[in-house]
Amino acid sequence: MASSSTCSSSSSSHEDAWNIECFKYSRRATLRSVVGRPDGGAGLAGERAVVGGWVRSSTVVRARRASAVSPGSSSPSRTKPEGNVQTTGLTCTEVLMSRVPLIRCIARLMAGGIGAAAGAASGGSARRQAIGKALVRINDGSCVADLQIVVDSSLCPLDQVTATGACVLVEGKIEQVEGTAPQYVVQMRVEKILHIGPVDSEKYPLSNALPSSDLIRSYPHLAARTEAVASIARVRSELIHAVHAFFQSNGFFHVNTPIITTTSAGNRSKMFRLTGLFSKSDNDIRITPEAVRAAIKEKTKQIEALKRSESNKEALEAAEQDLQRAKALSRQLEQSTESSPDDLFHCPAYLTPCHTLHLETFACALSSVYTFSPAFQAEILDSDRSLAERWTLDDAISCTEDCVKSLCSTVSKDCSDELKFLSSSQAGDATNSLIGSAVSSPWEKIKYTEAVNTLLQVTDKTFESKLEWGMPLSHEHLSYLADDVYKKPLIIYEYPKQLKPFYARLKEDFKTVSAFDLVVPKVGIVACGAQKEERMDNLTSRIEESGLQIEQLEWYLDTRRHGTVKHSGFSIDLERLILFVTGLKDVQDTNPFCRTKDHAKC
Amino acid sequence: MASSSTCSSSSSSHEDAWNIECFKYSRRATLRSVVGRPDGGAGLAGERAVVGGWVRSSTVVRARRASAVSPGSSSPSRTKPEGNVQTTGLTCTEVLMSRVPLIRCIARLMAGGIGAAAGAASGGSARRQAIGKALVRINDGSCVADLQIVVDSSLCPLDQVTATGACVLVEGKIEQVEGTAPQYVVQMRVEKILHIGPVDSEKYPLSNALPSSDLIRSYPHLAARTEAVASIARVRSELIHAVHAFFQSNGFFHVNTPIITTTSAGNRSKMFRLTGLFSKSDNDIRITPEAVRAAIKEKTKQIEALKRSESNKEALEAAEQDLQRAKALSRQLEQSTESSPDDLFHCPAYLTPCHTLHLETFACALSSVYTFSPAFQAEILDSDRSLAERWTLDDAISCTEDCVKSLCSTVSKDCSDELKFLSSSQAGDATNSLIGSAVSSPWEKIKYTEAVNTLLQVTDKTFESKLEWGMPLSHEHLSYLADDVYKKPLIIYEYPKQLKPFYARLKEDFKTVSAFDLVVPKVGIVACGAQKEERMDNLTSRIEESGLQIEQLEWYLDTRRHGTVKHSGFSIDLERLILFVTGLKDVQDTNPFCRTKDHAKC
């Protein structure tokens, strides 16, 4: 399928052909198709295009005789960079100031203080009269690189297009930038302003060119306008596509497992429970059990008073009848309140913390299946996982290894700019080399028992958490193994049964199960899997051992009762995989909306 | 990426090369790669393979001298179909019985009644001694076609492999079937049984070869073993892949919008509300507000009694202190009960009924984005939707048309067997021709006002629901337009503002908004979209008109405050699109777990 078509601007009066590929549905060239090209856009010099985006940073330059070009005139296809300024995101104004004393004065006048250094010409009515041109770096979220557009003050009041966060849609000509190591290969000389979405710099929370992480986290709905969050979003998108590509090319069917479930496979204290319809307790005029109880109390008092006074027998009888009615209503209300939360489900309903059980029912019919669904835990919010079903533990391990390697390799190839940007703002390029070795070399595979023995023999480090066979490996244990001992992705398998869910297949020793974790350096566990217990008797005794209610799992046991099959599966934690490929430290940064706090906001 | 590798069975003792492509991770050939080939498997005759699946139906045939072949012997690569039986799913036993009186007696003896007709040889210990061979049709869910395997009674007790629903994994040789119009091109002569997952026919709920829809619906966890549900699952999988392919090839980024939200864009009565941690209300010992209130009541009575008797001042004082304490506790508890359900969110949290608002925040940063997430309504359960963001209404309509056409075209090409199967068990091939014309011809586009005028002039039909300008179009109205008037997919646009959400862009007439619905024949609305209101004043007044709390939408308004941009979007209802492409009638059939009742089960 063709990914884009050649532009023809319906709103433009220009009749000449447009040679820049643009988005089919918005008649606008993405910045990826201009500055995202391998030549940085050099091959497009002289071409006309419509581009748009949000202002990242900007500089206002007084028109100088040598480079003053009025819009619409046939601008030279190669020009000196405007004002010959090294326009980096943060320091542009400072560089200008150090060179041109006059501009320094103007900038001081206009910026009104250090805080507005990056958006020097933005905001304030006194600045409307700025004459000259604005060098505005815009980004439309399609790639890491910004495009510099040159806007003459005859086109619009410059403060409208220079405020960080403003949205601009412009038409103009691409021209190559010359000079000693200019930051940009090309820039656009704007000929027509098609749209301005203004911004009030005083109020725009991300008007600082490099907002702090804490600030970004406070505004999840604007966060994707920062390069860091946008880069992560593009890596995430690429990873998700790669997940589907991997499974589809290996013959897996995508199925949808339910998100609302009445079954729990583990600890219910970590599950979200759903209540019924909101309207019952919110919008309607309510007769609450409490109100009725208060009425009963009142009526009881009244009856006691009437009894004491003995003044009016009829009034007493009426009051007693009222009391009976109120009591009946109270009983009724108590019952309806108890049943209403789950009226749609007939029993308590939860958000699923795990898709494994339902996915197995599809695997026991369609053979090779996967799902890509959010899983919910009441502590850590949603975390997308893809799960697949295979025959044996070895198959599952080999499929996990192929899958994760394929995902890493796709992302490091197709998102190299994003990874470069993220590692430059993080821990250097250590991450990239970690991915490289993860993709190219075979992984280490050790049994849980070996892992414990290795850790017990460690003398150069003391661990905080105690360890003996049968106890879980803590994060520091896993980190020591992956970061210090093996220095690469590590599969740990054959865990003691008490450390894994009831459905993991019991081994012949009756102590361990066929389950594994994939541990990667710096992050920890990014995937886990198990061969599923297909033997009915083992399964039921494991369910009982785990303290789960077997009646709730009867439907699951049906898949073993009726044509049981050896199968295994694994799940990948997408958020942690993003940490691994990007080098990010905090799982809360992988998606702007996936943070506990933010749910309170949006 | 290579989709599969040539088989090498690790457990097999055969050293010769295997020429049938098989699943990389299960070392088993899928039936799609054998009987799903265009030649029905003819080119594979003589090849050895491992296949598996669940038994769909079976027949036991007494060994006859001419065709008796012991396992392991070099069987001829072309053989007569076993017993020369027309083995259709339901009637195999009947056909046999009409032809071979001896077999009729045996079958009666073994079947024990009409009910077990299809799985004639299944179940019961008395049947273990059956000598001869079983013709077993198995299916592994990878394609519509079954594979017939021939199992000799020397390999295993035949009742184990003939019970409908049993799981078998076998190794053997593919051989071509000859004869007058044999139902199968090839069958497999089994040489080795690798695994049997037995089934008790008495207890297996789907042991009848053609279970009723109601029966299937009662067992969502086994439903995918029926051909109908498996076909729908494969169509769904293909559709989902096509959705991702369409958006990816058109430069859209996939983003994850939250499923848990505190914002409501419309009617809260249709939203699921989340409560906090289960443990608080379930496992812990609770001091409820009710219990405290009862204590207060008791204490109040006691005080009254003490006052009346005036016997003990100290007792009265103590009781009054108790009462104060209880009241304080009550206040405290009321507060904590109000806040605890939402302790993680600080305010009421819901499952999102719509991803539009959050998706817009990404569109206002990354330009072209889509999501593929379940949306929740408390009436109809989850319904997957994909949403995309574009610039204007025309762009959104054109993108919707391209997208739906691309999905229909992919599915009709890649799932032709499934669609054929489903239409044969439904409304003939009318569905396929509907898809054909939907893909090939341009769609009708009319304004809401035109639609109402057309409907008001209808004389050959009376509608149940009243209609005048400003009222919603009911299902019968939409159906009349799409099925009777235009007979093809229909875009209805420019709706009265009161019929669409607050974010739809107001037109110059201040009465209508830039919103549209895509209506397809037989199904109704499968997609809807709108150009979003980018003007702050219009947006806030529309929010107020809609009776929504503007404070809750402040975060959304931020995207208009700070660099607003013209944009539009649409969402596709995947479940209804599946109805359209498959010809299914009931949206509850599109996914076995997506039915209200079933959530109570799984």
TrEMBL record, chains A, B:
<dbReference type="GO" id="GO:0006421">
    <property type="term" value="P:asparaginyl-tRNA aminoacylation"/>
</dbReference>
<feature type="compositionally biased region" description="Low complexity">
    <location>
        <begin position="65"/>
        <end position="78"/>
    </location>
</feature>
<keyword id="KW-0648">Protein biosynthesis</keyword>
<protein>
    <recommendedName>
        <fullName>Aminoacyl-tRNA synthetase class II (D/K/N) domain-containing protein</fullName>
    </recommendedName>
</protein>
<keyword id="KW-0175">Coiled coil</keyword>
<dbReference type="InterPro" id="IPR004364">
    <property type="entry name" value="Aa-tRNA-synt_II"/>
</dbReference>
<dbReference type="GO" id="GO:0005739">
    <property type="term" value="C:mitochondrion"/>
</dbReference>
<dbReference type="GO" id="GO:0005524">
    <property type="term" value="F:ATP binding"/>
</dbReference>
<feature type="domain" description="Aminoacyl-tRNA synthetase class II (D/K/N)">
    <location>
        <begin position="337"/>
        <end position="596"/>
    </location>
</feature>
<keyword id="KW-0030">Aminoacyl-tRNA synthetase</keyword>
<feature type="coiled-coil region">
    <location>
        <begin position="299"/>
        <end position="336"/>
    </location>
</feature>
<keyword id="KW-0436">Ligase</keyword>
<keyword id="KW-0067">ATP-binding</keyword>
<dbReference type="InterPro" id="IPR045864">
    <property type="entry name" value="aa-tRNA-synth_II/BPL/LPL"/>
</dbReference>
<keyword id="KW-0547">Nucleotide-binding</keyword>
<feature type="domain" description="Aminoacyl-tRNA synthetase class II (D/K/N)">
    <location>
        <begin position="215"/>
        <end position="274"/>
    </location>
</feature>
<dbReference type="GO" id="GO:0004816">
    <property type="term" value="F:asparagine-tRNA ligase activity"/>
</dbReference>
<dbReference type="Pfam" id="PF00152">
    <property type="entry name" value="tRNA-synt_2"/>
</dbReference>
<feature type="region of interest" description="Disordered">
    <location>
        <begin position="65"/>
        <end position="86"/>
    </location>
</feature>
